[in-house]
Amino acid sequence: MGLLDGKKALIFGVANDHSIAWGIARALHGEGAVVGFSSVESLLERRVRPLAESIGSTFIEACDVSSDEQLRSVMAKWQAAHGSVDVLVHAVAYAPREDLEGSFTQTTRSGFAVAMDVSAYSLVAMCREANAAGLFRAGSSVLTLSYYGAEKVVANYNVMGVAKAALEACVRYLAADLGPAGVRVNAISAGPVRTLSASGVRDFRKLYGTFAGIAPLRSNISAEDVGKTALWLASDLSSAVTGETVYVDGGFNVMGVPLLDE
Fold first, then answer.
1. Tens digits of residue pLDDT in 89-136
2. Measured between alpha carbons, how far is 225 from 94 in angstroms, rounded to an integer?
3. How far apart are CA 252 and CA 191, in angstroms?
4. Is 157 an active-site residue?
5. CATH no. for residue 227?
6. Does a structural domain hold residue 258?
């Protein structure tokens, strides 16, 4: 028997087979969960549907998470198909490229608003619409993805770091709101992973290249590593864990002033 036999998981944000969200999907499916997918329309048919169908998923819906109406529609369709959601995964983030490439001082008002809306507020909206549709039940688990740039300054992460800080605050407030109903809300802060979204961060290759030399475990992080922790947070093994940001970064976040190996 798998850890998630009989459980139903809805995942927002798979972009391709390198996505952290896809690593999570595979981990949940591997332990018996029925998995459904929602992603931006432009990626749905070419990228997402083949991946979803490869694990037998039949729920594949387009959604712009900045639209309450589209979120509401996806939740209604999921309710009609599956009745409830045991695991809700928010793996969505975006900021205009120009607001990631310059200095943080030059962040535009519109770019700031977009980053906060798509990367942070969408988690609140997602939980609200799922709750309104009656999808949550005692034991449901909500997961989102953060990064160390929410806590410390990371070169070229700029407005996305601020958005991730807001996202982590949303996790805590949602955990307090939904906790009395038995719903848990947590974030995973992963080390750098080669994904489509990471390619939008200037000099990501340099960041990725030096990471393994600094992290105590001396290795880079994979989507599969994140998937394993997501599996724990999605399962009853973490039944008393909520409102947390769990680091999956080989210990990188504990380092102060590292001495690189020569």
1. 999 999 998 998 889 999 999 999 999 999 999 999 999 999 999 999
2. 23
3. 8
4. yes
5. 3.40.50.720
6. no
- Candidate list 94, 148, 157, 247, residue with the active-site label: 157
Rounded to the nearest 10°, the torsion over CA 182, 236, 84, 42 is: 110
What whole-number distance in Å separates Cα of residue 72 and Cα of residue 65?
10
Q: Long-range contacts: 64-70, Cβ < 8 Å, 24+?
A: 64/40, 65/12, 65/92, 65/118, 65/122, 65/125, 65/126, 66/117, 66/118, 66/122, 68/125, 68/129
**Is 121 among the residues known to form the active site?**
no
> Among the options 94, 147, 148, 247, which is catalytic?
147
The answer to whether position 115 is within a domain reads yes
Number of domains in the chain: 1
| pTM of the complete model beyond 0.85 | yes
Q: Which run of H or E residues covers position 36?
A: strand 34-39
Range of the domain at 219: 8-247
